[in-house]
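Problem: given the chain below (248 residues), write out its structure.
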Amino acid sequence: MDEVRVVVAHSERATLRVGDVFLKVDADQARIDGEVEAMARAPVPTPEVLWRKPPVLAIAAVRGTTLGRLGGPSTGSPAAWAAAGAAVRKLHDAPPGPRPGRAGRGIGALAAELDAECESLVANGLLPADLVTRNRRVAEAALRPWAPAFTHGDLQIAHVFVEGDEGTGIIDWSEAGRGDALYDLATFTLGHEEHLDDVLAGYGGDVDREAIRAWWAVRSLLAVRWLIEHGFDPFTPGCEVDVLRSRM
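Solution.
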């Protein structure tokens, strides 16, 4: 009998694995609807939807292994990272659709959220003021006009699967929608800056690396308090706090 394994769980949603089936439990039906729609429209391999019975979505496992994880070593070759970059380009070149995603927050709203979060990080003693101030300056380069793209919205490396040097699928589309393509590239390479050249070789085109580095700062600053409050540790070596320290 297959055991039930908790993949991730917090107050917003949970994902369980039973054999080759993943069960995503989410009380936000609109988020589940958006995830299913995004997977149907994405021009890259996505998990097969097996069934839906709110608040549960059942999807099939994707073959292959992930490229690694934040805070851990990369298990993928440079060619695999480049192949993933090419898949992300294919996604970004597709029609973005009407739904705004996580990567689609407006500049003004994002700046206000970032300033409030920076103030909270310092006021509550979660991070040193100089670390926060330096990274808030770095983050400014992400606050610029961008052309809408079809973005995944949470493209961490644990969501990208490969087999050898071939991409086999991208999972977890709940944050997908219209947004800034460089947010996806930054999320994908967060904590693995050594593979940025490989990813961009596959992605192609002239990419603003300063904006990607700025998104590393934005994502990390906005994540620290949330992670702590939901039982995760952003101080783990190689994770968000280390990413912020690397900008110093």
